[in-house]
Amino acid sequence: MATELDKVDVVTIGVGWTGGIIAAEAAKAGLSVVGLERGRERGTEDYQNIHDEYKYAIRYELMQDVSKETLTFRNNREQRALPMRQLGSFLLGENLGGAGTHWNGQTWRFLPYDFEIRSMTEERYGSEKLREDEGYRLQDWGITYDELEPYFDQFEKTAGISGEDNPMAGERSDAYPTPPMIKTRTLQMFEEASTNLGYSPIMMPSANLSEQYENPDGESIAACQYCAFCERFGCEYGAKSSPEVTVIPTARKTGNYEVRTHANVVEVLKDEDDDSRVTGVRYVDVRTGEEFIQPADVVVLTSYVFNNYKLLRVSDIGQQYDPETEEGTLGRNYCYQIFGGATGYFDEQFNTFMGAGALGMAFDDFNGDNFDHSDLDFLHGGNMAITQTGNRPIATNRTKPDTPSWGSEFKKESIESYTRTLRVQGQCAILPHRDNYLDLDETYNDVYGVPLVKLTFNFTDQDLAVQKYVTEKAGEVMEEMGANDVVLDAASTDYDITPYQSTHNTGGTVMGDDPETSVTNTYLQHWDRDNLFVVGAGSFAHNSGYNPTATVGALAYRCAEGVIRFAEEGGRLEEE
């Protein structure tokens, strides 16, 4: 029998960026908050001397244990979905800080076009461009960029983001709180080449801070040391903005916040007497197997995309999406990203073994609707960038296409190319399609006996077309940079869940202003249960040509405002 605990004002499920932001804001407002995290406690002191590529980057020390919790995957409904037995295409975080610990720190705001993609596309190109007869399902988010801009600003100031103004993006209310990172030789080459081609390169907005910074809550973030151990690693210097060095300490200092680790939530509990409310959550202590019930006035799902969806589904909250009838909203609009780029081989050697997760330059001339799509067979596009994240020797092994895959020639070419190759890459949006969605698996369960999430996803003609276009543009930039040989990426076919691509999964719990097409309203409040909020990249109505974290952070601040208002006023939140 589950042990019932004392009731709190707010309980969050997962303690990463979203859970930390909700906790900090709610606790500062005087609400009692408990954060349930199924992983363990950790912080900067745990990352000292972690320059072990094999342990962290290859064996995924900081990631989710897929022997306990994974998902099943298929490309289409005719296939049998099988479990993902090892991490590949995306890397799911676990423990305090979640994926906000091992991220690179590339912190882009989504474009104004992203939030109103359907209406802006229709206005400029006509309804035929939406390609609804081919199964594409574009929808606006119910909120505009201008409405979300103050929350972007708040997130950037909390995280101390280092950057510069982007002439191709939405207007800003204030400058970035810290200046851009150092511009290295490789970035200078990209800047010169892309400028020569008529594009507008800028330094990438970075959560690897260019200088020491104290945020508005009094948290200190150190300056980046350019050690090249960002992605898949925690920062040993406390110089990469993450929940453990920003919002979680802020929440704890209030005295109103408790983090409860090793607590795996398996159900959101519904109020049997009031079908507009939930009463709390049920969780399992992963060390002892004991079950607990945590009552709360407000429940906020702040875990990763797949788990937020899963908790709603297993708790029977909301209607599951059916791709045949297109009825239901839970699980619809799953999106990912697709990449297209070019690798250049040079005589010159570069210090590419050094760097930082968000040390890069980029331009948005082919992102969103910043270029004319009238005669193109796709919508949206991608952010084009070169990054110097630090080539680690195990994972980085670029060789020319005609090089054998083993033997002396392979070794010679690997050594020769290690510091003589550069890559320009477009990170491209994927738009929602009726056949890409989340469901529960009928066969496979997690270690607690709860069904696994089933992912049905494949690239569409739209995705392959934008990849081809951006790949060719990347090749032109690399040619202008002076490479001896330029190798374009091979075209994708079916989506493969095996090789790493990006941890930029979105959709499944979409936000909006219409309960017929969304799971939550624009305060991330569930349409069916007034005291239940769901926030994360699952809220995105489609994906963009950017990394998602800044938009996730902005939505979390928006959600926190909603949680505090609900605690004060109750009921269905409306725009003020």
UniProtKB/TrEMBL annotation:
Molecular-function annotations in GO: flavin adenine dinucleotide binding; oxidoreductase activity, acting on CH-OH group of donors
Keyword tags: FAD, Flavoprotein, Oxidoreductase
Ranges where the Glucose-methanol-choline oxidoreductase C-terminal domain occurs: 432-556
Start and end residues of each Glucose-methanol-choline oxidoreductase N-terminal domain: 144-334
Domain of life of the source: Bacteria
InterPro entries, sorted: FAD/NAD-bd_sf, GMC_OxRdtase_N, GMC_OxRtase_C
Keyword Manganese appears in the UniProt entry: no
PANTHER family: LONG-CHAIN-ALCOHOL OXIDASE
Family as reported in the entry's similarity comment: Belongs to the GMC oxidoreductase family.
Protein name: GMC family oxidoreductase
